[in-house]
Amino acid sequence: MTSPGADAPYDDAGQPAAEPLNPELAAAEDVARAAAEDEARPGDDPLGSPVLTLDTTGDDVADSASSPVGAHVGVEAEGPHAVTHYFESNYPGYVGWRWAVTVASVGQGEPVTVSEVVLLPGPTALTAPAWVPWRDRVQPGDLGAGDLLPTSPDDPRLAPGHLTSDDEQFGDVAKEVGFGRKRVLSFEGRTDAAERWYSGDFGPGADAAKLAPAACGTCGFFLKLSGSMGGEFGVCANEYAPADGRVVSVEFGCGAHSEVDVDVSSTVPVAEIVYDDATLEFEPRGTERG
Question: 36-47 pLDDT, tens per residue?
Answer without folding.
Answer: 998 887 765 555
